[in-house]
Design brief:
The chain is built from nine helices and no strands. It is mostly helical. The longest helix has 46 residues. The termini are far apart.
Length: 225
């Protein structure tokens, strides 16, 4: 028997065992990711009702039917759980509001689409709540990683809105002397007013007033026909 025979005899079983172990590890990793995604989904639903501050490992364990240690193992801390919820909310916000608007031509059509999508999502959140708005109230005076993650997400969206305003001016849809930051600020203010009136004051007609407000902004800063 050659000196290579023992190696050939035993290397194949080890290779197969390695492959089986890799397969088990891969399935375990996928299952862990799926479990974490399900926890984050439940946490997001809970946060829209009670706020980010109300989230806790214990409350989430009760909602998901998992043990506290099982939930904790996926995040390590309540803070990381809150940050994961913010990131998931931001991902869904982009998918519903931002990315659909990119399929519309640059300039005023895209700006209209972004505002329309944003208003539609805000309207849908009247009975639940907007993580951006409620989170800003909860963490406005509380520095830390959660506030930083929340502010980063909001700024990413506001920067995208500001770019859409800039592009509208570049396309000649807004006056050349239009202040892009002011236009974006006024559009943002409409969304905040819509959320406050519709959710807190339960004012009828708030959606129509927000739409009219957007049209008034375009009339002030737009190029006359």
């Amino acid at each position: 028997m050659s000196v290579t025979d023992p190696a050939s005899k035993f290397s194949m079983p080890r290779s197969r065992e390695t492959a089986r172990e890799a397969g088990r590890d891969g399935r375990g990793l996928l299952k862990g990711q799926q479990t974490k995604a399900a926890i984050v989904d439940a946490a997001l639903g809970l946060a829209t009702q009670i706020g980010l501050e109300g989230l806790s490992i214990g409350a989430l364990a009760e909602v998901t039917g998992m043990s506290k240690s099982g939930v904790f193992a996926h995040f390590g801390s309540r803070e990381e759980l809150q940050i994961s919820v913010i990131r998931e909310y931001h991902t869904r916000f982009e998918e519903e509001v931002f990315y659909p608007a990119l399929r519309v031509s640059r300039g005023l059509p895209r700006l209209r689409a972004m505002f329309g999508n944003w208003m539609q999502r805000t309207s849908a959140e009247i009975d639940s709540g907007c993580i951006y708005i409620s989170g800003a109230v909860e963490f406005d005076d509380r520095p830390g990683a959660v506030r930083d993650a929340l502010a980063e997400s909001v700024n990413i969206w506001l920067d995208a809105m500001n770019r859409a305003v800039v592009q509208a001016r570049q396309e000649g849809h807004l006056r050349a002397d239009a202040d892009e930051q002011q236009v974006a600020f006024e559009i943002h203010a409409l969304i905040l007013a819509l959320h406050y009136e519709a959710r807190f004051l339960k004012s009828p007609g708030s959606l129509a007033r927000a739409t009219a407000g957007f049209d008034h902004i375009l009339q002030r800063y737009g190029v006359p026909p």
